[in-house]
Amino acid sequence: NGNAGFQQVLERLESDPVCQRLSLKSFLILPFQRITRLKLLLQNILKRTRPGSEEEVQATQAYDALEKLIKDCNENVQRMKSTEELIYLSQKIEFECKIFPLISQSRRLVKRGELTALDFNTPSPKWKVTTRPIYLHLFNDCLLLSRPKE
């Protein structure tokens, strides 16, 4: 979005008849769609092969290899999503002092959410309760509490 030249070239390429008016995103997703179709194809081949035959052994090996590939792809997609979340979060959060780097290969966001903190002011005879939003970010290795900038 920040590079106007790239956007112009991308629009020109996407409007080219060779691309069949498909977006760049669809071309990036296409290999993953093909892998899942291959899995379905191998399942059908396995259904139609004779049990105990050489073809069944080869198809089973191919299916197992494809299963491993799909699992690896899904894990890498999850890892990239997690890293993108950490980058987005590090851009949003401003630390008073840097205690640790928020972005790390091993760190991933497990859960996040908003809570309401209650402050009870006891010096007065009447209990006065004030509220303010607090955000919790639970990572696999730490818990981060944040509040909106005032």
Automatic annotation (TrEMBL):
<dbReference type="InterPro" id="IPR000219">
    <property type="entry name" value="DH_dom"/>
</dbReference>
<dbReference type="Pfam" id="PF00621">
    <property type="entry name" value="RhoGEF"/>
</dbReference>
<dbReference type="GO" id="GO:0005634">
    <property type="term" value="C:nucleus"/>
</dbReference>
<feature type="domain" description="DH">
    <location>
        <begin position="1"/>
        <end position="76"/>
    </location>
</feature>
<dbReference type="GO" id="GO:0005085">
    <property type="term" value="F:guanyl-nucleotide exchange factor activity"/>
</dbReference>
<dbReference type="InterPro" id="IPR047271">
    <property type="entry name" value="Ephexin-like"/>
</dbReference>
<protein>
    <submittedName>
        <fullName>ARHG5 factor</fullName>
    </submittedName>
</protein>
<dbReference type="InterPro" id="IPR011993">
    <property type="entry name" value="PH-like_dom_sf"/>
</dbReference>
<dbReference type="InterPro" id="IPR035899">
    <property type="entry name" value="DBL_dom_sf"/>
</dbReference>
<dbReference type="GO" id="GO:0005737">
    <property type="term" value="C:cytoplasm"/>
</dbReference>
<dbReference type="GO" id="GO:0035556">
    <property type="term" value="P:intracellular signal transduction"/>
</dbReference>
<dbReference type="InterPro" id="IPR001331">
    <property type="entry name" value="GDS_CDC24_CS"/>
</dbReference>
